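<goal> How does this chain fold?
<body> The protein record starts here
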Amino acid sequence: MNEKIIIRKVKQADYSELFKFINKGIKETDFMFRSTPITKKEEKLWFSTIMNEIKKKNSSMVVADLSGKIVGNSSVNRNFGEKSSHVGDIGVIVLKEYWRSGIGTKLMEKSIKLAKNELKLTLLTLDVHGDNIAGRKLYEKLGFVELGALPKAIKRNKNYVDKIFMYKVLK
């Protein structure tokens, strides 16, 4: 990988590239939130919503930009309700060809920084598939602690996988 990857905040102009990125990620891995591609209509609604939430300081999103191609992203979404608005849920996706390149770490580090400094969150949570060993190691390296597991919470084809819950206190 000779080209430089830039980790930056998402912008409105990323819409088309982000749509392609998400659908490629869905095809490449079982660790995504869904197994079927998203439609243009779904993506348009989601992107519009996330951009509005970013403006309101309820969300943040960063992308890994490789010469205009999005190869990874990470987002944080604030919990709603006054009693839990200090908590955010964080996630990360990297295209398979860029796994184990350090991009996931850089995306998560930037998202954690934004969660603390811009969203003013004090706690981050995430869930990860029990068999996503690389993901779990990444999260542990970044200071996330395993809270517990929900057995067989994820269904893939005819098999079930545990959902692992993790958290990080932001200082």
About this structure: The helical segments are 15-28, 40-55, 103-117, 133-141.
